[in-house]
Amino acid sequence: MTPPKDFNDRMLSLGLARVSEAAAHASARLIGRGDEKAADQAAVNAMRDQLNMLDIKGVVVIGEGERDEAPMLYIGEEVGTGNGPEVDIALDPLEGTTLTAKDMPNALTVIAMAPRGTLLHAPDVYMEKLAIGPGYDKDVVSLDMAPAERVRALANARGVKDSDITVCILERPRHEDLIAEVRSTGAAIRLITDGDVAGVIHCAEAELTGIDMYMGSGGAPEGVLAASALKCMGGQMWGKLLFRNEDEKGRAKKAGINDLDRIYSRDELVTGDVIFAATGVTNGSIVAGVKREPGYLTTETILMRSKTGSVRRMIYRNPVK
């Protein structure tokens, strides 16, 4: 899909970085304070204020929840000055509220922007996810394969033993069988407690992170954010919505999704060009966390554009009173 001429991703990307930086600054004062809701709300407030300074006609398609669940940055909320391109916004003001409250690694503020109608309006349900990094033939692994088959297929594509593969999985009781099957191949597993957007991003930088593949179920909205990052960095991803009851199926249909069994590829989750920004709140393997110095807060942001495949790391040293 060709982006509209007024979607100037080059200029908008810097504004997007400011949005994620502001959210990280706001939530930084609540690191280790044990209050997840307060940390999340601080990030939401700051992100919304910054978004409303951008010259865009933005609509939140991945946000904090339905309008009656979230006072700000709810799904369908309009953001920006109203002067500029029509865009979709996907965001997680604080990916890792628990990580922030407990001062644990890999808490991020995350946001993506794309031309209107190009981000999947994923309902707030679970999504089965599978991701690998760049450099592989198309569909070398798939969601139709059993987990052990995926490990063997990826190892064969890399020309290594199964035991040389490392898989990232969210540590949850629902993943016990998945973990057991992956371990039966001899592959290593890196378990994460929260933050599966970061888990998927790790696949795109396997040489740095040591992670070859991401598997497991997590939030569908986070799946769209992860696909946005992977579209910029390179790599393959698939997602399938999972429903626990009729209410969740109804949410999907309300979002315009009628094929409830569809497996989405990365480019079906994000159909057009996208820009993506993430700022570290606590120290992590992707970006450093907020650093406090006398009179300053310093953050690191990763800023990416799918159009060019550029990945920029930015250090922002901001005076504080």
UniProtKB/TrEMBL annotation:
Signal peptide: none annotated. InterPro entries: FBPase_class-2/SBPase (IPR004464). One of its GO terms (molecular function) is fructose 1,6-bisphosphate 1-phosphatase activity. It comes from the Bacteria. The keyword Zinc does not apply. Substrate binds at E95, G96, T97, Y126, R172, P173, R174, D194, G195, D196, G219. Mn(2+) 2 binds at D92, E95, E222. The keyword Transmembrane helix does not apply. Its cofactor is Mn(2+). Keywords: Carbohydrate metabolism, Hydrolase, Manganese, Metal-binding. Gene3D superfamilies: 3.40.190.90, Fructose-1,6-Bisphosphatase, subunit A, domain 1. One of its GO terms (biological process) is gluconeogenesis. One of its GO terms (cellular component) is cytosol. CDD domains: FBPase_glpX (cd01516). Pfam families: FBPase_glpX. It catalyses: beta-D-fructose 1,6-bisphosphate + H2O = beta-D-fructose 6-phosphate + phosphate. Mn(2+) 1 binds at D40, E64. Belongs to the FBPase class 2 family. PANTHER family: FRUCTOSE-1,6-BISPHOSPHATASE 1 CLASS 2-RELATED, FRUCTOSE-1,6-BISPHOSPHATASE CLASS 2. This is Fructose-1,6-bisphosphatase. It comes from Paracoccus yeei. The gene is glpX.
